[in-house]
Specification:
Elements lengths: L2 H20 L33 H6 L14 E7 L5 E7 L1 H4 L4 E5 L32 E2 L5 E7 L2 H8 L3 E6 L6 H7 L2 E2 L1 E2 L2 E2 L1 E4 L2 H7 L2 E9 L11 E7 L2 E6 L4 H11 L7 E4 L14 H13 L3 E4 L2 H7 L6 E9 L5 E12 L11 H4 L7 E9 L13 H19 L3 H7 L17 H12 L10 E3 L2 E13 L7 E9 L2 E8 L8 H13 L6 E4 L16 H24 L13 E4 L2 E4 L2 E7 H7 L4 E7 L5 H4 L3 E13 L5 E11 L6 H20 L5 E2 L4 E2 L18 E5 L22 H13 L15
Parallel strand pairs: 1-15, 13-14, 17-18, 22-23, 29-32
Antiparallel strand pairs: 1-5, 2-4, 2-6, 3-5, 7-18, 8-9, 10-18, 11-16, 12-13, 12-15, 16-17, 19-20, 20-28, 21-22, 21-27, 24-25, 25-26, 28-29, 30-31
């Protein structure tokens, strides 16, 4: 990362630090969410029911266009050549055979690529979402094994792939760091995340640990993980005059368009990026080298370009989750009260981005303890830049923390569920902020009863033939986020005898049901039937910037729609005039109900939308409004929670592990759509089963190359690996969030690794602290 970017992050951190001190002192009424959202009390509509995804029929019929299905006339197809050294210079590119191959349109490298600016890296500016602090195709430098260095355009994808295989490249290799031990020898530094140090110190944790009556102290390790979305990364790109048009698969539509504009010296109005459907993202569907290369190749060739990464290409170009080494030490009194909690360790990143795995985030608000030390340190290796991956930090951090708590429960002779409840905090242990909503105790008790936790036996006590049977549990936690920049545009229009609404938000749909949930919330807020509300999204031409990440998109959309609805009410009251039953009322006295506006405490004073528009001689009315700043994040401690229960069967002969039952009990505020929320919970749990038992990016420390870049060698759960998964939730609204809801996208995976590991211990008596838990570790 450059000095300029480091200074920017430092300044960002100072501002953040000042706000963190001031905002908690403000009265609740000054803070967004200080007055509960009216939809929290709206109990008799669509919210909370099971609504099928509105885009489902299109996907089933194959009518939903994904990034690699858009077409332009005279389109060329792109294939990439990847570097095979971890660091050095390109000395020769012999492309003669490729250029002479059938159908080849262009061979592009740093030797002939258009001049481009460096994409601003994620976090370096409000809209910067570049993958690293590096230029693309602008010099002869190689920064990781797998870096794209040559692009071949041809008339068909097969011709482009063939020609790319004919390119010969020679290098001058330079010294590199591709082993963990080598990276440690080069130096270790304090880790930063979103401009803030990953460090918390309260009291004397080491001293309290030494004095504790009972203690555990162990090191846990997690490997690299790679993204494997169903839809590999792709983009279809064209220059239309001096405007750049991109059909992409993106979780950050507006920000990515702005970043690409900076690369090519374009204004925001000169870049149009659409992303109507994203076939799986989990943090990976952002800006990588391939979109920039595709746009440059389209510019140089004068033809539209489709660039679709192969599955191997995703491993070479798209970052994933980096490895960690974590120490967790807990000291407790004889009755189980925590007296010391230490969670420290090391994460690895590249020299060119600042994306460590922030594994202490979940520990910060997890348990009451007077003496706490949390720290993430970092070291650097010459490798592909890391990126976000579902529940970054929490997914692997809870494996270490929750495994250690299980070890402590064994040492104390206390039930692991009761030990967790015994150490429930009454306020945030590290910030001192009050919790906005925390009902994890309810989730634990409801989950334990439903799972049959009381039937659990001692380690090794249950056996079914060759199979040892055990149960384990763990807590999951993920913060509530709401990022700034969200806007909503609502257009209310006369439609026959009634009205309909178009709600536009610059959001992304990755299959989790965002458009459906937005339609539900907008319909309830506007007082319209669901079939009278249309939602538009996934287009940089829509105002605002909403990122599908951090389980925050629904909250960001919700806050923007609240603001736009309030503006719409005010505009409609102005249009209604003095002849309306609503005359003389302020916008704060009026709400939407049954296709119109009504006085909140006297619904007889009402007028329909159609009547207001007709009398004003208007066919439609449009408002645009931004959501409030997300100050609630600094005023309350806000989190989604889970209580996870797992049953496993381990073969005593082969070491094979099968998960036979799993239950997740979730505390995520109000559930907006029971059907899609349950799907999100189950999907996260399945991803967690992969994390626990099989997922691992195998990295060759001799040359920095990923050795298993395919689904044949990188193992993921399949149907036979996944049992029936039961999910329940508290459905207790948070009074301080839009709709009373918390995010559900990432809480599902969080804690699953520990629940599986703890169940394996209960089955076998063997403690595994190194993921994945493969059969060789159990033989």
């Amino acid at each position: 990362m450059s000095i300029v970017d480091t200074v920017k992050q430092g300044a960002q951190g100072l501002v953040q630090g000042a706000m963190t001190k001031l905002v908690p002192l403000a009265p609740d009424s000054w803070i967004p969410g200080g007055v509960p959202d009216p939809l929290i009390q709206h109990k008799h509509g669509l919210i909370g029911t099971a609504v099928s995804r509105l885009d489902g029929p299109l996907k089933v019929k194959g009518a939903a266009p994904f990034a690699a299905e858009f077409r332009f006339d005279d389109m060329a197809y792109c294939a990439l050549v990847y570097a095979t050294i971890p660091r050095g210079r390109i000395t020769v590119i012999d492309a003669a055979a490729a250029e002479a191959a059938p159908g080849v349109v262009l061979v592009m490298s740093h030797l002939n690529a258009p001049r481009m600016n460096k994409p601003p890296a994620f976090g370096s500016s409000p809209h910067g979402v570049g993958p690293a602090d590096l230029t693309i195709f602008q010099d002869d430098r190689v920064h990781w094994n797998g870096q794209p260095i040559v692009a071949v355009l041809a008339e068909t994808q097969e011709q482009a792939d063939h020609a790319a295989a004919l390119v010969e490249v020679a290098y001058a290799a330079e010294s590199s760091t591709t082993s963990l031990e080598g990276a440690k020898a080069n130096g270790i530094a304090q880790g930063l995340f979103m401009g803030q140090p990953l460090l918390n110190e309260i009291g004397d944790a080491e001293g309290a640990l030494a004095k504790a009556a009972v203690r555990v102290d162990a090191v846990y390790r997690t490997p690299r993980h790679n993204h494997n979305p169903i839809e590999p990364h792709a983009a279809t790109i064209a220059w239309v005059g001096d405007e750049l048009v991109i059909h992409d698969a993106s979780q950050m539509v507006t920000q990515q368009a702005q970043t690409l504009g900076e690369v090519f010296d374009l204004t925001p109005e000169q870049v149009r990026l659409t992303s109507p459907y994203v076939g799986g993202g989990f943090g990976s569907k952002g800006l990588w080298d391939h979109q920039v290369i595709g746009a440059a190749a389209a510019k140089l060739s004068g033809r539209p370009v489709r660039i679709a990464l192969s599955r191997e290409g995703v491993y070479r170009v798209v970052g994933g989750r980096t490895l960690t080494e974590q120490r967790v030490a807990i000291g407790a009194s004889a009755d189980g009260k925590f007296e010391a909690l230490i969670h420290t360790g090391l994460s690895v990143m590249s020299p060119h981005n600042n994306m460590p795995e922030p594994f202490i985030l979940g520990t910060r608000a997890g348990y009451a303890c007077p003496n706490i030390r949390l720290q993430v340190e970092v070291t650097q290796m010459n490798m592909l830049a890391n990126t976000f991956m579902r529940a970054p930090g929490e997914a692997v951090g809870t494996f270490a923390l929750e495994s250690a708590i299980d070890e402590l429960a064994v040492a104390l002779g206390i039930d692991p569920v009761e030990l967790r409840l015994l150490n429930e905090p009454d306020k945030d242990p590290t910030t001192g902020l009050p919790f906005s909503s925390r009902h994890i105790d309810t989730a634990w008790r409801d989950g334990a009863a439903r799972f049959g936790w009381s039937d659990r036996g001692a380690p090794g006590a249950r056996r079914e033939g060759e199979w040892l049977v055990g149960t384990g549990c763990a807590t999951g936690t993920y913060p509530y986020y709401r990022m700034p920049g969200a806007e909503a545009r609502i257009t209310l229009r006369r439609d026959g005898d009634g009205v309909s609404a178009l709600v536009e938000v610059a959001a992304a749909e990755m299959g989790m049901g965002t458009s459906t949930t937005t339609a539900i919330v907008a319909a309830e807020r506007l007082g319209l039937p669901l079939d009278r509300v249309e939602v538009a999204y996934g287009d940089s031409a829509i105002p605002g910037a909403i990122m599908a990440g951090g389980s925050q998109q629904t909250a960001a959309i919700g806050a923007a729609v609240i603001a736009a609805h309030n503006a719409l009410v005010a505009e409609l009251l102005t249009l209604a005039g003095n002849d309306s039953p609503l005359a003389g009322l302020a916008a704060s006295e009026v709400g939407s109900e049954d296709g119109g506006l009504a006085k909140l405490d006297d619904v007889a004073r009402r007028e329909s939308y159609a009547s207001i528009l007709a009398r004003a001689q208007r066919d439609e009315v449009t408002v645009i409004k931004a959501g409030s700043p997300p100050l609630e994040l600094m005023h309350w401690s806000m989190h989604s929670h889970s209580a996870l229960f797992c049953e496993v069967k381990v073969n005593a002969v082969t070491g094979e592990t099968r998960v036979s039952r799993f239950l997740g009990a979730f505390d995520c505020g109000r559930i907006l759509n029971a059907k899609t929320a349950a799907s999100q919970f189950r999907g996260g749990i399945i991803m967690g089963l992969g994390l626990a038992l099989m997922e691992e990016t195998q990295f060759d420390e001799r040359n920095g190359r990923i050795m298993n870049p395919s689904l044949a060698e990188y193992h993921l759960p399949v149907h036979l690996d996944v049992p029936e998964i039961d999910v329940i939730w508290t459905d207790i609204p948070d009074p301080h969030t839009p709709m009373g809801a918390h995010g559900v996208g990432e809480i599902g995976i969080t804690g699953v690794g520990a629940a599986v590991a703890n169940a394996i211990y209960n089955a076998t008596g063997r403690r595994v602290r190194d993921l994945p838990i493969t059969l060789d570790k159990l033989l």
